[in-house]
């Protein structure tokens, strides 16, 4: 292997190890104790690949045919060069070189054209397969139960749809065409060497044991190291998402140092595993170089002996040596690309693992809710066995009633909201929507009945109108404007550069936090579910923005049942009823006035809120240049 190839190998191992994933000890080493999404077995991956390729047999046959033709043409180079050597040795004159030199030029042109066309066809086939896998993965991932995704962690799913797809795409565009050409070159070159003179084959095959043992040595050591690195990278990515996504909470509770230390430990774990992989790669190629030395030395010795006894000409011996030398790059490339193949295979298995997940059963019996009422009976839920979050919760919400869920952090408000919305499945107890048990409604029925809006609103890239139509694909522009007007967002939507046609989201017009929540509430109006759950939907908007959104939320909830996880107690004060949770249990229920008068847990929360608002009032200094202007107090 040349020094350039060695540098390429080292750089690739450092920057893109892309190992396959194995759970178990690797996960434990990486510090990731989450139940990861499944990874397909080798048999499952091959079966999925066969199914995808079944519809592209003609393209696959054309790609293989062109590559075989180009490789076969290229094999003519060594015999032609050997013939040139014989012409020179026999001193036949310069005219005898004209034909072989012209043929060499023709061979080079034909081989280059075939290689380019064949590589293009192979890449096209690979891109077609990748597109099919990506579409299947996204379609299945979007239908995964949210509880399953949350249990695995966002990092696991994100790493599959980003890094795994990137690794496969790189292999499809670079490694797959190169590997196909290399494999064909190896096979056909050995065949050409046998045709040239079979006595050179034993010499060539002396290198085979070294190469086979090198590959076995590499695979035995690389697979577990790469598996560990894949899980370590997923754990690091998940920690980054958690720390960056929750940066306000991290700062508020002064957790910056612990989070930085955790990120450092997971980064070091990923780095250390990558370095172990680098050492394995360098050891692998040093063994391959030994095999090349043994093989070439054996061919040269065989050539000397055969020429010495007059069995072959110098030109034939030269052609044999050139044949073996021409195998250096294809063999090294093919063996080196085993690393890329492992990475791509691991990524492919992770994508197929999600794609092969059984479709969420829709156990609905076709029944529809009679109204927007919600009845929760003896509900218990736990994220981990033995650590319940909700205890024997019972709650009845009348159709059209607006109920606020209140409690300290960790009281179980969001968990209750997500269980009602079908994000999590209750451990025990029952939930009925409109008089129909959710088990009879089925997942699709629950999604049609309940819409959950959290404080994390995603603005999809594209025109604002299309973003809104995600809630109702057939909505007219007039219906979109009516939905925006209902939540008080029509004015700023009209003020956008292109109105409803303005491209928003990534790469487009950036919406403020308040505008993004307005967008979510407008989607709620368009979807028009009987039950809506707002999980702290105004928490990130700031005081002024929160007041605007609270008013918008009230208008969006008109005519439907509303469960509001109240981050701001004034939002609870306007609700028809307040339900107070504490340590996973409902401890109080009633109107705002009733609970304040009762002097219980809600009264304590309200008193603490009121005191905090009074303490946060600040003195605003007079405007610059007007020292005599009176100062004012503002909240």
Features:
2 domains; single chain; disordered C terminus; disordered N terminus; ABC transporter transmembrane region fold; Rossmann fold; alpha/beta
Structural description of this entry:
- It is a single chain.
- The chain is α/β, with parallel strands linked by helices.
- The protein folds into 2 domains: 3-14 and 24-355, Up-down Bundle (ABC transporter transmembrane region fold); 374-615, P-loop containing nucleotide triphosphate hydrolases (Rossmann fold), CATH 3.40.50.
- Helices cover 63% and strands 11% of the residues.
- It has 24 helices and 14 strands.
- It has helices at 3-15, 25-30, 42-53, 57-74, 77-89, 98-142, 146-152, 154-196, 201-205, 207-245, 247-252, 256-308, 314-326, 328-355, 413-421, 438-449, 464-468, 477-486, 490-494, 513-527, 542-556, 569-573, 592-598, 601-615; strands at residues 374-384, 387-397, 402-406, 428-433, 436-437, 450-454, 462-463, 503-504, 531-535, 561-565, 577-582, 585-590, 618-620, 632-634.
- The strands form 4 sheets. The protein has a 6-stranded mixed β-sheet with strand order 6-9-10-3-11-12, with helices on both faces.
- The longest helix has 53 residues, at 256-308.
- The chain is elongated and about 115 Å long.
- The N and C termini lie far apart (72 Å).
- The relative contact order is 0.09.
